[in-house]
Design a protein that fits this description.
The complex is a heterodimer of chains A (289) and B (148). Chain A has 289 residues and is α+β, with helices and mostly antiparallel strands. Chain A is 32% helix and 27% strand. Chain B contains three helices and seven strands, in the order E-H-H-E-E-E-E-E-E-H. Classes of the chains: A alpha+beta (289), B alpha+beta (148).
Chain lengths: 289, 148
Amino acid sequence: MFAAQFDYVRAKTLDEALSLLAQNEDAKILAGGHSLIPAMKLRLAQPPLLIDIGRISDLAYVREDGGQIRIGAMTTHYQIESSDLLKRICPLLPQCAAAIGDVQVRNKGTIGGSLAHSDPAGDWPAAIIALNAEMVAASRNGERTIKADDFFVDLLTTALEPGEILREIRINRSNGRTGQAYTKMHHPASGFAVVGVAANLSLDADGSCQKANIGITGVSSKAYRAAAAEAGLNGSKLDEQTIASAASHATDGVDANGDLFASADYRRHLAEVYVRRAIAGAMKSVPPA
Amino acid sequence: MKIEGTQELHAPRERVYAALTDPQVLQRCIPGCESLEKTGNDSYAVTIKAGIGAIKGTFKGNVRLEDMRAPEHYRIVVDGKGGPGFVKGSGDFDLEDTGGAALIRYSGELQVGGAIAGIGQRMIEGAAKMMAARFFKALETEAKDSQP
């Protein structure tokens, strides 16, 4: 289907985009267009105006600044997947990027667009939660930061207010011995995560788990932190039994959703299995002491 | 798709039942309800502008209440059509008195078709739960406020 008629403005700067957004309440921000455009072609979304920020080149970057990783919202999945800096200091991000959709999606889709859309089966939200990232939201009144745990509010709903644009993602670089991994079950048709689990572990010198961070996507209406599973790992030696018992709490207190492809029960089961795999993967990636 | 759940509202059961069957209250509580007009005994024509994130659509349809046994039970039958697809379904509401509060058990069958079912299939259940939560939250406020 063709999209319904709409106006289109290509913003040259973030300021221009913000003032256009302030003047047009129903306008939508266009980033890579890999969620919004399909919805528009099915006329599920009919915004009267698209404000394209995808070509604002100073919103696409990956850099390290005083122990903090900063990623511009318009950085594509592929740019993250292929970043040597990130492969070295935060391998979870390139690994997660590589698991998204297909080559075309990764070349066009952006991390900021994906996070702001907050698809319940999107891959980035799980990684962002596991990394305790902060989102920098810009508006005409200035900027504020939103913690990953507060950012995802509900289905397709984030803490971004009308008039705000996600500008940057910030992640504190981890010190010491850490291991990270992202594992997912791909939906065979769409490539979305039926279930996706991101694990980010900090280990003590003796190999026990100091702090586990686990983000899960695909199970519920929004990505979430598997707090009960984390609690089962914190302070423990990560043997098989500890991991299995922690993983069995992967969906505690979570309202799992079902669809034609996977029932809620099946998703809960997958979450447990993929938490185990993500922890095992993260442990493998820990550098030797 | 099956929709079922329970919801406790902190208001007396009679008030909750009255609110659940009062067209004016419903219009205020149904997320995005633009109009709700009486077309007959316990049947209404509704227009709902529903939107979650970028996904928005206007639905027009009919709602009929059946098998009304105040203050404990009624059945709702809906069918609607809109840009993004169609919805059709029915559900039972049972209200239980839990000492000053009302426990609502709802269970129903909903059919969704058209574009919204194609692209949105994996999100329909989440969307239904989100709308239900918004509805009950608004309803609780209404039922409380209507107390003498």
